[in-house]
UniProtKB/TrEMBL annotation, chain A:
It comes from Diplocloster modestus. Belongs to the ABC transporter superfamily. Keywords: Amino-acid transport, ATP-binding, Nucleotide-binding, Transport. Residues 3-234 form the ABC transporter domain. This is ABC transporter ATP-binding protein. GO terms for molecular function: ATP binding. It holds the Pfam family ABC_tran.
UniProtKB/TrEMBL annotation, chain B:
InterPro entries: ABC_transp_permease (IPR001851), LivM-like (IPR043428). CDD domains: TM_PBP1_LivM_like. Keywords: Cell membrane, Membrane, Transmembrane, Transmembrane helix. It is a multi-pass membrane protein. The lineage of its organism: Bacteria, Bacillati, Bacillota, Clostridia, Lachnospirales. The chain crosses the membrane at residues 12-28, 40-59, 66-84, 90-108, 115-132, 161-178, 212-232, 252-274, 286-305. It holds the Pfam family BPD_transp_2. This is Branched-chain amino acid ABC transporter permease. It is found in: Cell membrane. The keyword Transmembrane applies.
From TrEMBL, chain C:
It holds the Pfam family BPD_transp_2. InterPro entries: ABC_transp_permease, BCAA_transport_permease. Belongs to the binding-protein-dependent transport system permease family. LivHM subfamily. It comes from Diplocloster modestus. It comes from the Bacteria. Keywords: Amino-acid transport, Cell inner membrane, Cell membrane, Membrane, Transmembrane, Transmembrane helix, Transport. It is a multi-pass membrane protein. PANTHER family: BRANCHED-CHAIN AMINO ACID TRANSPORT SYSTEM PERMEASE PROTEIN LIVH, HIGH-AFFINITY BRANCHED-CHAIN AMINO ACID TRANSPORT SYSTEM PERMEASE PROTEIN LIVH. The keyword Transport applies. The keyword Transmembrane helix applies. This is Branched-chain amino acid ABC transporter permease. It is found in: Cell membrane.
TrEMBL record, chain D:
SUPFAM superfamilies: P-loop containing nucleoside triphosphate hydrolases. CDD domains: ABC_Mj1267_LivG_branched (cd03219). Keywords: ATP-binding, Nucleotide-binding, Transport. The keyword RNA-binding does not apply. This is ABC transporter ATP-binding protein. InterPro entries: AAA+_ATPase (IPR003593), ABC_AA/LPS_Transport (IPR051120), ABC_transporter-like_ATP-bd (IPR003439), P-loop_NTPase (IPR027417). PROSITE patterns: ABC_TRANSPORTER_2. Residues 5-252 form the ABC transporter domain. Pfam families: ABC_tran. It comes from the Bacteria. One of its GO terms (molecular function) is ATP binding. Transmembrane segments: none annotated.
Length: 235, 331, 293, 255, 381
């Protein structure tokens, strides 16, 4: 197990958003996390990446507890999050944003990586000298995904990466996710587009207001009736 | 039924509180303590006006002391030079200050938070230097002596004791007015501006108009507070309206909790009373004040009665003792 | 007279410039109205003064002063600002704790050094003035201006070119997001405060050397306030702006005093400032707005 | 069916970038009008222009026949346009109910003196506003959250708060910018019904979305933008099979 | 009694921020009979003008300690309480109320800033407290007709005229005034320019001011003086701006004769160095007087506070002795003001005190000192 969350409880002020959650992310596999609005998915990611501190429970990464580490130490360990709501650096250009993504890297291939993502999302190349804050919503989303990838993480956590993207780009993103997975990176994916997500995923978890209700093989989930009803749009 | 009981206890508490407040002057040890109490109430009025600007409209105004000065001097000049009833001059001082505030507020429309903050300090300097230099009008650095005490319905409220009830009535009135404004749609418009100007503009809120109005209304109360204060000390001096004073007024609102009206009164009380306690320990006065401010901010970053302030700390404490406290939020 | 007044104006401006840069650095990056800036550097200057008076080599004395300022600011950051940041406090809270720190520092200075004015002459900058006919230019002013411009260039370069500079720029936009990039936020912010204090102390020492005195009030009225004005004038977050803003401030003050009225000098300066802000609401070198609906 | 909004030859440049390029279209007062297009096509920019947030470089706009070119946001709002934002903009430190009440701002009449004196008229107005706001919250199914601080709610709820805020101002035209972003299919379905209901309540709706299925079911007409240009404007069935649109936007339908 | 004096002497801080008589046990350990005579010292003790307040306090403190060590007044110890008015009139009123509410306080050493003094007077009058002002020089104070208020110093007007005479005698052709924009200094400036007009027929005296809180650069003033050909500048301001102005004049090779109203602080010499050479200052305390008593006082003061006394401290010192003298001869809290106005005829170490029926000290003498080769020297009249 690359990542193992045990009985995690997280509170905002006094109110628990996660109420004792356990889940596992296997190395080299893609795990997806589904759930309705406010279930606590983003809260979980924020806790793993160190932005929130758990009230109880453990987060084991490669066997050691990272619950108490600071965000930057966690990033250095290879866990990177692409946050919900894009969160690009608005006053820096697209190019500078990408370079920021590679902050923890020390190698010299940064330029090549940037070029690679430019190929994948040509609009970013076109806008490379524009301030990121002035990009359209979708452009920002693409930038956020690429920026997360720039650090070459071991565990990539994506929070609704397809949000606000045109269908054609969504397909591109999923293709990319698949390629990343195939290159050996472990992925924890939060998606509202449950069907697509389960298709690329190996495992899936379903969350409901602070609890995990189902955890199963992705294929099984895709077929499960309850899941179909609640998360795959009824019909 | 439960609601009724609750309402009853609330009423009872309010009644007890009222009696205590009304009888307070009879139990304080001396006139000095009374003076301090009166000052707390006068400063509360001003702190409330700061809260209106900062807590509700989100504009950091360090320049309230300038408006206190405008109110004070308008009142002092009018009262010492012309024969007009006290109450007329008093209200006129408020209105004149409101006008000044409105003009300045309207003038500062285009500036953003930080710029406005500095400019308000500039206003303090401009007003202070005007008061010092413009000797013909303001009697310059000498100040104006012999400002009359409040005269209401033929009574002259000269003693501290009498003034206590005047200040109390004034505070209650101002509190009521400000609270009504903040609870109305105009108050909500101010809060909307504070939270998100763009979304506010999309709700048909006229940003410049509201900001100017906020400055104007708040300045009315500031001016009234200033006039009441000079009616109390009976001497107007330009050296009362400094940047430091402006900072203190802001701190009252902030320490108490932005957006919380009782907070402003608490803040005023703290910042008037704590320096009194350290009056003879003057060597450490600033140290005491400084440490107090830092510590209070660390414990309640949103002010004592603000979000996650004293109340929440108390609730948490009680809960830790094992008592069940109703959670406000439904999950 | 006109030309001499102009030179005087530039001299005053250059004195404000250095102090303003330290202020602007912290202000631009962390958005904090740092009321403690002046009082923290006052401590540094007083340490320098004490060291020098007790017979230390002036250069070492200065280094001690700078170190003292940096250490004080780091402690302040650690114990007064960082906890607030961790609690996710609003922008106002650190402003108030900064005022608290300013009070504390002022009190400490008064307790340790007393309220009177001391002569301050480190004897390193070489006093005196050059004169060209009827014109007088102080040598120290030339020093000060050179140092200010050099410091500005170095810092600009650091911010632009180094990784740490990029980290600082990132933090100035969003602290949580910067942390997600693997930036050690606390360390970088501490660094910024340290740098701000160092610049402040250097500026303060030059200020004191220029006027030849030191007393406990140099922090607020001459430090925080002037630095703040210069910063706003030049544009928040722009170092170049800090220098040019300081110059504008110097020019306005000196010319208003020389040609209009010394009594109303400050009023005039403030009014000019107000009008300027009306015309350019974001200062001379405004930070670019990068927000979109 | 009457013309509500008419845009003529609208252009918008951002320092060299043509975000909108000669757009002309008309929105009727009884339709749900959809706008789709690749990222960066200029959809949000179009919204910004027809609400007076950005001033177009050239072109004209008419609302119910009145020329609105050059007017500011507040003027548009008073004329009956309300919108939601792609990047959510709720008043974070205010409760949900207060957020919605702010939306009613333009319908409130009381002046300062009435407020201070709490005249019966003002009291009645305030009570009515609260009732209406609560009713709106019920309608959107977020009445439970009425007293919560809007800023700490999940994205989906915040979106609904925005919609409620926009709706209570009784607009003639409601602009929704990606309302389903961050919602799961179930919630998206709910929202779809909601929008249909909203439409029945009065305002015309113009909606930007990337969820094709959603758009095809919901909209009466769809405009397709691409690189700032109007690529197509037609009923959904035709747009969906327009080869240009498929190539630029929808992509190969999988499965 | 108060035995912490030694501690003060040890402290290296100069204008001593310690205040020893605040020890709460002062009363209990009282050696003498009867209660202590408690009195209040007011003034700014923090903030920008703290220096004067603390200097006045130091002088009082020294006298109190000496008197107590010698057995007190009629066996009663002196007990001094200090109040900080932060140089703010509003605060001064609160201070006054606090003092008035304390029945054990018998008299008050006045606030220093005139705004504070005026603001607080009402309260003191109502409370029947006597106010003694060691350093309130503002002329206008004489005109208020207060019966409980007496000052030990000369008013600005009187000393300013002396200074003007001295400077004109030295051959000034075109005098100018440089004043801080405060009540005291503005008032003095007006007196000087009127006097120059009346006595010397100089009508258009150049007057330049500065804002003491925020100005340290006087280059525009210097430029104006120089351009107008001013050869004599009368300084109505504290010693720091005075020294700075002279330095800034000399930087521009401009060397007018200067004289100041409040420049007798020894710090000015270390501050201004060579630049303040030749500066005249008018003072009520002639530190150059070889008189044994005066030199002894200077020596003791220096030992305590590590610096030379000036007007503020010496006047504070003598004021306390003068009141002690009144108490010794039968005055009490109730009739102190009356008694002193009528009967005080006290020869102090640094000045004599005898009141003129109003609030002014008739016997105050003023000297003119000049800084010569780094030291104050008495200018022969
Ligand atoms: N800053 C905050 N303060 C208080 N409560 C919060 C905060 N952020 C989130 N919450 C609460 O925590 C719960 C979980 O929120 P979270 O954002 O993790 O949900 P989510 O599953 O990611 O939802 P979404 O699909 O909308 O992104 C929600 O009830 C939300 O109201
Ligand atoms: N203020 C601005 N300054 C400069 N360029 C801008 C500005 N606003 C938008 N742009 C650019 O204009 C283009 C259109 O942006 P817009 O936000 O309208 O796209 P959109 O169609 O809404 O895309 P999305 O579906 O991704 O939200 C984008 O490429 C964007 O980078
Ligand atoms: Mg989420
Ligand atoms: Mg968009």
């Amino acid at each position: 197990m690359l990542l193992e969350v045990k009985d995690l409880t997280v509170k905002y002020d006094q109110i628990a958003a996660l109420k004792g959650i356990s889940l596992q992310v296997e190395e080299g596999k893609l795990t997806t996390l589904l759930g309705s609005n406010g279930a606590g998915k983003s809260t979980l990611l924020k806790t793993v990446s160190g932005a929130l501190k758990p009230a109880a429970g453990e987060i084991l990464y490669m066997g050691s507890n990272i619950a108490k580490l600071t965000s930057h130490d966690i990033v250095k360990k290879g866990i990177v999050q692409c946050p919900e709501g894009r969160k690009v650096f608005p006053r820096q250009t697209v190019y500078e944003n990408l370079k920021m993504g590679a902050f923890v890297r020390k190698d010299r291939e940064i330029g090549e990586d940037i070029e690679k993502y430019y190929q994948q999302f040509p609009i970013l190349k076109e806008r490379r000298n524009q301030k990121a804050g002035l990009l359209s919503g979708g452009e920002q989303q693409m930038l956020a995904i690429c920026r997360a990838l720039m650090s070459r993480p071991k565990l990539l956590m994506l929070d609704e990466p397809s949000m606000g993207l045109a269908p054609i780009v969504v397909q591109e993103v999923f293709k990319m996710i698949r390629a990343i997975k195939e290159s050996g990176t472990t992925i924890l994916l939060i998606e509202q587009n449950a069907k697509q997500a389960l298709k690329v995923a190996d495992f899936g978890y379903i969350m409901e207001v602070g609890y995990i209700t189902i955890g199963d093989d992705a294929k099984a989930l895709l077929k499960s009736e309850t899941v179909q009803k609640a998360y795959l749009g009824g019909a | 039924m439960k609601k009724l009981v609750q309402a009853k206890t609330k009423l009872l508490l309010l009644g007890v509180f009222l009696v205590v407040i009304l009888l307070l002057p009879f139990v304080v040890p001396n006139t000095y303590a009374l003076k301090v109490l009166n000052n707390v109430m006068l400063y509360s009025v001003i702190a409330l006006s700061v809260n209106l600007i900062l807590g509700f409209c989100g504009l950091l105004d360090f320049g309230r002391s300038a408006f206190v000065g405008i109110g004070t001097y308008f009142f002092a000049i009018v009262m010492t030079r012309f024969q007009i009833p006290w109450i007329v001059a008093f209200l006129a001082a408020g209105l004149f200050t409101a006008l000044a505030g409105w003009v300045i507020g309207a003038f500062l429309q285009r500036t953003s938070f930080d710029y406005l903050t500095l400019i308000t300090i500039g206003v303090v300097e401009i007003v202070r230097l005007f008061l010092v230099n413009c000797t013909d009008v303001t009697n310059g650095a000498m100040g104006i002596t012999g400002v009359p005490s409040p005269q209401l319905f033929g009574f002259v409220l000269k003693s501290h004791f009498q003034f206590y009830y005047f200040a109390l009535a004034l505070l209650v009135l101002c509190y009521g007015m400000i609270s009504r404004i903040t609870k109305s749609y105009k108050g909500r418009a101010l809060m909307a501006i504070r939270d998100d100007e763009i979304a506010a503009a999309y709700s048909a809120i006229n940003l410049p108009g509201y900001k100017a109005m906020c400055f104007g209304v708040a300045s009315f109360f500031t001016g009234i507070g200033g006039a009441a204060m000079v009616s109390y000390t009976r001497y107007a001096s330009p050296y009362n309206f400094t940047i430091d004073e402006g900072l203190i007024l802001c701190q009252m609102a902030i320490l108490g909790g932005l957006g919380s009206l009782p907070g402003s009164i608490l803040g005023a009380a703290i910042l008037v009373i704590v320096p009194e306690l350290s009056r003879t320990a003057y060597e450490y006065r600033l140290l005491i004040m400084g440490i107090m401010m830092v510590v209070l901010m660390l414990f309640c970053p949103n002010g004592l009665l603000g979000r996650s302030g004293l109340k929440d700390i108390l609730v948490r404490f009680i809960r830790n003792l094992g008592v069940k406290v109703r959670e406000k939020r439904k999950v | 007279m006109l030309f001499q007044v102009f030179i005087n104006a530039l001299s005053v401006g250059s004195v404000y410039a250095l102090i303003a840069m330290g202020y602007n650095l912290v202000y631009g990056i962390l958005g904090q109205l740092n009321f403690a800036h002046g009082d923290v550097y006052a401590v540094g200057c007083f340490v320098t003064y004490s060291m020098f008076v007790s017979g230390m080599n002036p250069i070492f004395a200065m280094i001690c002063g700078i170190l003292a300022g940096v250490i004080v600011n780091l402690c302040v950051e650690r114990f007064a600002y960082r906890p607030l940041r961790k609690k996710g406090a609003n922008r106002i809270a650190p402003t108030i704790s900064a005022v608290g720190i300013a009070y504390i520092m002022r009190n400490v200075v008064q307790l340790v050094w007393g309220p009177q004015t001391f002569a301050f002459n480190l004897e390193v900058f070489g006093g005196g003035s050059l004169h060209f006919g009827n014109l007088y230019v102080g040598t120290l002013q030339i020093w000060i201006l050179t140092i200010a411009v050099a410091v500005m260039l170095v810092i600009t370069l650091v911010l632009k070119e180094t990784k740490w500079g990029q980290a600082i720029v990132g933090i100035s936009q969003s602290i949580p997001t910067a942390a997600l990039m693997g930036i050690n936020v606390n360390r970088v912010i501490a660094m910024v405060y340290g740098m701000g204090a160092a610049l402040g102390v250097v500026g303060g020492i030059l200020f004191c050397s220029y006027y030849g005195f030191i007393y406990m009030g140099i922090g607020f009225a001459y430090g925080t306030m002037k630095a703040w004005m210069a910063t706003i004038w030049g544009g928040i977050g722009s170092l170049k702006g800090a220098i040019i803003g300081a110059m504008c401030l110097g020019i306005c003050e000196t010319f208003a005093g020389a040609y209009l009225s010394t009594a109303y000098k400050d009023v005039i300066v403030w009014v000019i400032f107000l009008v300027f802000i009306m015309i350019r609401p974001r200062g001379l070198f405004p930070a670019q707005i990068a927000e979109k609906v | 069916m009457a013309e509500l909004l008419r845009i003529e030859h609208l252009c918008m440049n951002f320092s060299g970038l043509k975000a909108l390029d000669d757009i002309s279209l008309t929105v009727h007062d009884d339709e749900i009008f959809g706008i789709i297009g690749p990222n960066g096509a200029g959809k949000t920019t179009l919204f910004n222009n027809i609400t007076g947030f950005n001033q177009p470089t050239s072109g004209r706009m008419f609302l119910e026949g009145e020329d609105m070119t050059g007017k500011n946001t507040t003027a548009f709002c008073l004329k009956g346009i309300a919108r939601t934002f792609q990047n959510i903009r709720v008043f974070g430190q205010m409760s949900v109910l207060e957020n919605v009440l702010v939306g009613m701002h333009k319908n409130m009449q009381a002046n300062l003196f009435e407020i201070i004196l709490k005249t019966p008229r003002q009291k009645k107005e305030e009570r009515k506003a609260r009732e209406e706001a609560m009713e709106m919250l019920h309608f959107l199914g977020i009445a439970d959250a009425a007293d919560e601080m809007a800023g700490s709610l999940p994205y989906g709820t915040q979106r609904k708060v925005e919609i409620a805020r926009a709706l209570v101002s009784r607009p003639k035209l409601l602009l929704l910018d990606e309302p389903t972003a961050g919602m799961n299919p179930q919630e998206t379905d709910d929202l779809m019904h909601l929008i249909a209901q909203i439409r029945k309540r009065g305002p015309a709706v113009t909606v930007i979305e990337h969820n094709i299925k959603f758009m095809l079911t919901l909209c009466d007409r769809i405009a397709v933008l691409n690189f700032g240009k109007l690529l197509a404007l037609d009923v959904p069935e035709k747009v969906a099979v327009n080869p240009e649109v498929v190539a630029a936007y929808i992509g190969e339908e999988e499965e | 009694g108060n035995t912490k004096t030694d501690g003060t002497a040890d402290s290296s801080s100069t204008a001593g921020t310690d205040n020893s008589s605040q020890t709460p046990d002062a009363k209990d350990t009282d050696a003498g009979t009867g209660e202590a005579i408690r009195f209040a010292v007011c003034g700014p003790m923090t903030g920008d003008s703290a220096e004067q307040g603390l200097l006045q306090m130091n002088g009082c403190q020294m006298a109190v300690d000496e008197i107590n060590a010698a057995g007190g007044v009629n066996g009663r110890q002196l007990d001094m309480v200090c109040y900080d008015d932060q140089a703010s009139p509003n605060q001064a009123v609160i201070v006054a109320e606090k003092i008035a509410a304390d029945p054990t306080i018998e008299f008050v050493i006045s606030h220093i800033n005139s705004g504070c003094t005026i603001a607080a007077q009402d309260v003191y009058i109502d409370a029947g407290l006597t106010v003694l002002a060691p350093v309130n020089t503002l002329d206008e104070l004489s005109g208020y007709g207060w019966e409980n208020f007496m000052r030990i110093c000369l008013s600005d007007g009187a000393s300013a005229k002396m200074l003007v005479d001295a400077m004109m005698e030295m051959g000034a052709q075109k005098p100018a005034v440089f004043y801080a924009n405060t009540a005291n200094d503005l008032s003095a400036c007006n007196i000087i320019s009127d006097y120059l007009g009346e006595k010397y027929g100089i009508a258009d005296v150049i007057k330049e001011t500065f804002n003491p809180e925020t100005d340290r650069d006087y280059s525009s003033q210097v430029e104006k003086f120089r351009a107008a050909g001013v050869d004599c500048i009368i300084l109505c301001c504290e010693y720091t701006p005075a020294a700075l102005l002279m330095t800034q004049c000399h930087e521009k090779d401009y060397r007018p004769q200067t004289g100041g109203l409040a420049c007798n602080n020894p710090e000015i010499i270390s501050l201004g160095g060579e630049d303040v050479e030749g500066l005249l200052t008018v003072t009520g305390f002639d530190c150059t007087n070889p008189d044994e008593k005066i030199q002894e006082f200077i020596g003791k003061y220096r030992e305590l506070y590590n610096t030379d006394p000036n007007d503020c401290s010496s006047r504070g010192y003598d004021t306390i002795y003068c009141v002690a003298d009144a108490y010794k001869n039968g005055a009490a809290k109730e009739n102190l003001a009356e008694w002193m106005l009528e009967k005080t005829d006290y020869q102090g170490v640094t000045c004599d005190i005898r009141f003129d029926g109003n609030c002014d000290n008739q016997a105050a003498i003023t000297y003119i000192l000049q800084i010569q080769s780094g030291a104050f020297t008495l200018l022969e009249q």
